[in-house]
Amino acid sequence: MGCIRVDKITEYLCDPLQRCLKDDDPYVRKTAAICVAKLYDINAELVEDRGFLDSLKDLISDNNPMVVANAVAALAEIQENSSGPIFEITTPTLTKLLTALNECTEWGQVFILDALSRYKASDAREAENIVERVTPRLQHANCAVVLSAVKMILQQMELITSTDVVRNLCKKMAPPLVTLLSAEPEIQYVALRNINLIVQRRPTILAHEIKVFFCKYNDPIYVKMEKLEIMIKLASDRNIDQVLLEFKEYATEVDVDFVRKAVRAIGRCAIKLERAAERCISVLLELIKIKVNYVVQEAIIVIKDIFRRYPNTYESIIATLCESLDTLDEPEAKASMIWIIGEYAERIDNADELLESFLESFPEEPPQVQLQLLTATVKLFLKKPTEGPQQMIQVVLNNATVETDNPDLRDRAYIYWRLLSTDPEAAKDVVLAEKPVISDDSNQLDSTLLDELLANIATLSSVYHKPPDAFVTRAKTATQKTEDDDYPDGNETRYSETLSNAANGGASPPSSSSVPHAAARQSAPAPAAPAPAAVPDLLSDLIGLDNNQIVPADQPATSSGPPLPILLPAGSGQGLQISAQLVRQDGQIFYSLLFENNTQITLDGFMIQFNKNSFGLAAAGPLQVPPLAPGASARTLLPMVLFQNTSTGPPNTLLQVAVKNSQQPVWYFNDKILLHVFFTEDGRMERTSFLETWRSLPDSNEVLKEFPGIMVTSAEATLDRLAASNMFFIAKRKHANQDVFYFSAKIPRGIPFLIELTTIIGNPGVKCAIKTPNPEMAPLFFEAVETLLKA
Amino acid sequence: MISQFFVLSQRGDNIVFRDYLYKARLKRLVIVTTDRGEVAKGSAEIFFRKVKFWKEDGQEEAPPVFNVDGVNYFHVKVVGLLFVATTRVNVSPSLVLELLQRIARVIKDYLGVLSEDSLRKNFVLVYELLDEVIDFGYMQTTSTEVLKSYIFNEPIVVDAARLQPLGPAAIFMQGTKRMPGTAITKSVVANEPGGRKREEIFVDIIEKISVTFSSSGYILTSEIDGTIQMKSYLTGNPEIRLALNEDLSIGRGGGSANDYRSSYGSGAVILDDCNFHESVRLDSFDMDRTLALVPPDGEFPVMNYRMTQEFKPPFHINCLIEEAGHLKAEVILKVRAEFPSNITANTVVLEMPLPKYTTRASFELEPGVTGQRTDFKGANKKLEWDLEKFVGGVEHTLRAKLTFSQELHANIIKEAGPVSMTFTIPMYNVSRLQVKYLQIAKKSSSYNPYRWVRYVTQANSYVARI
C-alpha cells in the first residue's frame, strides 16, 4: 500500500488509508500502519492534518502484536524524520509495549526494544522492573533481539544502584553475549564490535570468558582482528600467561596482517600490565629470533613503545635488536630502531657506527626516518661530543637544511642548529628532556564518545565506533534544504572575502601557516561571481523560514547567490573555474560549489573527492552537477559528513579537494576549513554549567591570544553576529574600563569551547581567552574568531 | 530501515534487486540527496567493486558492514551468492544481517534449492516473497508458515541432483545411503509428482566442535556449538514433543572455568547456554526436559546450545618433526580415531604449513591403504593429507621427507605451523545430548509419518599445535 511514491497519489490515498487503519483484519491494519510512514515521507503535513498520527498511536493498544510492532516501527520512523515530539513513550505506553513484547514476531520485538530504549526510567525501582521484563529476551535465537535486549538492560543498569542486582545482571548477560559468537561470522563481527564497547565500560561481564575470544583457525580475518582487540582489553595479571601463549601462536601464522597485529598485541599487553612486561618482552625476543622479516620489524616498533613506558629497565635487549638492523626496510620499523639508538646512545658502544650506516642513504629515506635520524644524531652528539659525531651532525644538518624540500625536516634542523650553536646546554635540556610516560590508550575511546556509543549499542554506530551524526545525514533538514539553496543566509557573504585569503594561505604546508600571508592576501583574486543579492544578514536569519515558503519552488537555482572564493581559476583549469567554500545551514555542513565552464566543449560527469583531513570531512553523497554547456555555470550544495577519513597528527585547516569530469584531467586544489562551520546549534550553556566547566578544566587548558587590529564598535551587533554563527553569549561584566564577554560554543563530538573576550568598545584591540578540553584546537579556533570579529 | 535489497552472483550480476524507497521526484538543477530513500541507483555496482577489491585497515576481506559515501552496505554470503542490503540510517546491524540470512532460508524453503539458476527461474515468486517479507524497508515476517497464506506462485523445481544444497543438512548428502537424499532439497510448498505429499519430519542434531591441543597433547580449549535443526513436511501442523536427556543441565555454576571438570565422567550433560526458537514452549522443560512445539513449515533451528564441558575428542593427533641431516627434515603425522569402530568419519583433511623454504616433500603412506591422497602445495608451503574414510578405532600414519633450500634459522618446530583438521562424522555426537523420543500428536491411528533423527559431528576449528 502506498508504494507509488509521488505527490499526486496522496489525495487518493487518504480515505482508503483511514478505513484500512480501522479494518477488522490485522493484516490490513499492519500494512496500513506502515503506509502512514510512507505517506509521511511524501507529505508530512497531510499526515498531521488528517490525524493519522493519532490513529497510529491508537494502534499501539491493538490486540494483534504484529500491528503493534508495525505501529511502533512507523512512529519511530516518523519521529526520526521530524523535529517535533511525535512519539513519546509514557509509562502506560511502556507497560503496553512490554506486554506486547512477548507475543511479537522476532522482528517486532526488535522494533519495540529499540523504541523503548529511548525511555528513561524515573527511578531505580522502575528500571529494575523493566529489566526483569526484558531479561527473558536474552534467550532468543535471533541475535538482533539479544543485542537490542542487551542495549536496553545496559541502559537501565545505569540507574540501578544496588550492586547485587547489577552483579546479577552482569552474570546473566555473559552467556548470551558469548553465544553470539557461535553464529555466522557476519553476526560474530557485529557482536564483537559491540562487545568491544561493553568491556570498556563493564570489564567484569566477560572477565572470565577470555577463552572464547581465542581465534579459530577458520575465522575470517575481520573476526580475528576484533577478537585480538578484545583479548588485549580483557588481558589481566591472572590470565596473561594463557593470552601470551595464544599471541605467540598467532605470530607464527601465515596471514601477514594478522601476525603483525598479534605482535603489536603483545607489546600493548606489556604496556598495559607492568608485572607481565618482562614475560611479554621475552616472547618478543623469541619471535625476533625466528627472523621472519615482518615479525622482526613489528617487534621493534612495539619495543620502542615499551622503552617509552618503562625507561631504563630493559636496555639489556638492545644488543639482540641491533643484530637484525640490516633487515629493516619499513619506514616505521627503521624510525623506531633509530629512535632506540639515539635514546640509548651512551650505552651502545658503536652507536655512531650504526647511525652512520643509516646516514649514507639519508636523502632517499622517507621523511619519517629522516626526522628520526636528525634527532638521533643530535642526541648522539649531545651525549658523546667527540669528533665522529661532530662530523656526522654536520652532514645531517647540511642534508636536512639545504638539500631537502620537506619543510618539517628543514624547520626542525634549523631549530637544532640554532640551539646547538647558541647554547649547547639549553639544547641538552630540550633534546634530552625527560619524556612523559606513555600508557596503552591506542584504540581506547574517550569517555564522552564511549557514552554516546554505548547508548547506540546494537546500531551501526556501535559497529563503526563513530557517533551517528558522523555518518547519517539527517532527513529532517532535507525538506527545507531544497528551497534554501537559492537563498543562502548572510553568513556566507560575510566570510567570502576573508575566506579567499585563507584559502590561499592554506595551500602552504601547515608548519608554516602561522606566518601571516600578507602577500597572499593582496594577490587574492576578487570574487568573480555577481554581487551578492541584497539580503541583509540578520534579516535573512530572522525571516529565513518565511522566505522559504514564499519562494516558488521552481525558481532556477543558478543565477543569484553570494560570491564564493575562487579555488581553481579558469587559467589553471583549462577554462573550468571552480569556486567553493564550506557553509553551515540548518545544522548541517555543506560544501557550496560554483562551476563555470569557459571552455569550448560541454563538460559532464563531475565527481569530487576529499583527501584525509583533520576533521575527516567527506562527501555524504555523489556530486550532482548537470552537464555544463560552454559558457554555462552551475551551483550546487554538497552535503558533507564528518569523521570519515581522519588524518592523524595535530589538527590543521588544510582541505585538499580533487574534482574530475569526463573531458579533462583531475583538478586538485586546496581549501581551508574554518572552525566556525562546525559550531553546533546545541552549543549554548547555562551560566552555572559554564562556571562549573570553566573551573573543572585545568589551567593548562587555557589559551590566550590578542588581536590588536580588531575593533568592536557595537556590542549588540557583534553579539548577534556571533550568535548567528552558533557562538552563544552567556554573560558580560565590566572590568575597569574594559568590557568582558563570555561565550560558549561546541563542535561535533561534544567538544565545548568556553570563551572570554576582553575589549574596550570603540578602541582597537581584543583579547580572547579560551578554555577547552582540546587545547590543540585553539589555533584553529582563534582563526575562526578572528574571521567572525572582522566581518 | 533498509533502502534496498539485492542479490548478486559471484560475478557481480544483479539477480534480484528491490528498492523500497525509490521516489520519483521533480527534476531540479540542484538536488540535495539527504533523503533516506535516495541510495543511488548504482549502489550494486559500487558495492561489488568495494567488496571485490577491499583493501583497508590492512585487511583484504571486506567486513560484513561498511560505509561508502554515506551509504551503509550489509552483506552475507550464502552458497556463493551475495545477499546485500543498503541503508542511510543508523539501524541495528545484527537485525539486517539476521534478516539477510533469513531471506536466504525462506527462499530456499520455497525453491527447494538455492542457487543462481533457481533464483533466475523463479524470480516472480522471489519478488512476491520479498514484497511480503519487507514493506517500506521494515521486516514483516520471515516465517515460511505465515507467508504461505499470502504467496500464490508455484515454484519451478530445478534439478537438485547436480547442485550443492544449502545449509547444515547438506552434510547428510555425503556418502550416507540411509537418507532419502532428495527429500531434504524439496520445496515445502511444491507438490510431489504423485500428487500426495509424503508425511515426514527431519530432526538433525548438528555439532560443530572446536578443539585446540597444546604441543604436549593436552586440550587447551574445547567447545561445542550445537544446534537441533528441524524440517517438517507434516500436513496440518500437529504438535510435537521432543524429549532430551533427563540429566541435562544448563549453566555452569560458580562461574569458574575449572570446576566443571569434576563432573566429567559422571554422565551428566551440562550446557553453558542455550536458546530456543520462538515456537518452542518450555512448560515442562525444567521438569522432564521435553520441548513442545508446533513446527512451522520450513527449516528452522529448534534449539541452539553451546558447551565447554570436557568431552572426548574424536581424533587424537600426534606430530613429530625432526631434522634429518643437512637441509632435510622428516615429519611424522599420526592420527587416531577415538570413536567406536561401527562409525566412520568421511572427508577427513589434515593440513600443516611447512617452513617457508621447503622446496620438496616426498610422502610415504602405510603400505596397502587406499582412498588417501597427499599433496604439497608449493605456493603456500602447505602439506595436505586427504582421507576419504576413517573407521573408528584405527590409526593412520603419514611420513613426509622435506628438503629445504637454505639453512634453518632456528628451531624447525617454530617454523612449521599447527596441524589443522576438518572432518564429518555422521551418526555420532560428542556431547552425548540425545533426542530420547519424538512424539507427534496423532490425528488417527493410521497416521504414522516418517521420522528422521540424525546426528552429525563436524570440525569447526580442530587444531593441534606442535
From TrEMBL, chain A:
Residues 556-670 form the Clathrin adaptor alpha/beta/gamma-adaptin appendage Ig-like subdomain domain. SMART domains: Alpha_adaptinC2, B2-adapt-app_C. It comes from the Eukaryota. Residues 474-532 are annotated as: Disordered. The keyword ATP-binding does not apply. The keyword Lyase does not apply. Keywords: Membrane, Protein transport, Transport. SUPFAM superfamilies: ARM repeat (SSF48371), Clathrin adaptor appendage domain (SSF49348), Subdomain of clathrin and coatomer appendage domain (SSF55711). This is Beta-adaptin-like protein. It comes from Gossypium lobatum. The lineage of its organism: Eukaryota, Viridiplantae, Streptophyta, Embryophyta, Tracheophyta.
UniProtKB/TrEMBL annotation, chain B:
Residues 198-465 form the MHD domain. It comes from the Eukaryota. InterPro entries: Adaptor_comp_med_subunit, AP2_Mu_C_sf, Clathrin_mu, Longin-like_dom_sf, MHD. PROSITE patterns: MHD. The keyword Transport applies. The keyword Transmembrane helix does not apply. SUPFAM superfamilies: Second domain of Mu2 adaptin subunit (ap50) of ap2 adaptor, SNARE-like. GO terms for cellular component: clathrin adaptor complex; endomembrane system. Keywords: Membrane, Protein transport, Transport. GO terms for biological process: intracellular protein transport; vesicle-mediated transport. It is found in: Endomembrane system. CDD domains: AP-4_Mu4_Cterm, AP4_Mu_N. Coiled coil: none annotated. PANTHER family: AP COMPLEX SUBUNIT MU. Belongs to the adaptor complexes medium subunit family. This is MHD domain-containing protein.
